[in-house]
Amino acid sequence: MATHQRYFIQLSYNGTNYHGWQVQKNAITVQEVLNEKLSIILRQPIETTGCGRTDTGVHARDFFAHFDVERYSDYRLWKINEKENVIRSINAILPKDIAVKSLFAVAENANARFDATSRTYEYHIHFNKDPFKNGFSWELRDRPDLELMNKAAQLMMAYNDFSCFSKSNTQVKTNNCKISYARWEETESGIVFRISADRFLRNMVRAIVGTLIMVGRKEIEPEAVQQIIESKSRSKAGTSVPACGLYLTEVKY
Question: pLDDT at position 76, please?
Fold first, then answer.
C-alpha cells in the first residue's frame, strides 16, 4: 500500500524576479519558493515536479506541478472538504507574484510533466511605449508583416526536428516536437504569437519568434525557415527575443 498521496497543484506566476521554474544553485526560482512554502504549510519536506521548465523572466498563466504528501501526516487541512483552506494558506505565504489556483488528488503514478499532451505559449509584442506593458511585452519600433510571418509559421508545422531552435548542450534525448498550432494575430495594442505543441525545447519559442520577426522585417523569405530547420543549426536561426513577452498559457492532460 502506498505510503503517500500524490497531488497536482495549478498555479500562475510573474517570472520577472525569478531565474525560471527549475531549482538552481545560487539563483532564486519559482520551484524553490513553492517547495519552501508548501513544506511550511504541510509540515513536511515537499519536492515538486513541474510540467516543464520556463526560462529566466518568462511568465506562466497556467502551470502544473505534482508532489507527494506522506500519509502519516495528520494535518487536518488535507481533508478533501478543506481544500480551499489549504489553497488560502499557501497563497497567504507565497510572494505576490506566485498564485495557487487549484489543488487536487491524483493517482500515485500521475506525472505533471510526462502526462501532459499539449502546451501552449503566447508571445506578446507592442509598438508604442507603454509603462504598463514594460516587463510583460516586447516593444518593437516597426510593425512586421504578419502575412509573411504566418506563411513561415505554417511551413514549420511540416517538420518534427527543431534542433535549430534549441539552446545548445541541453540534456534531452530528442529534439523532435509536434507543433499543432502556430499563428500571429492582431491585438488592440500590438500582435501576439500563439503556438501549441506536444513538447518544447529550451529557448525554442523565443528562437522561433526571433526567426519569424526576421521574416516579418523582410530580412529573409518565408521559405528560408525551411532551410533553417533542415540545417539543424542554432546559428542559422534568428536571435532569441526577450523573455518578458513570453507566457505559458495552457497545459492539457
Answer: 46
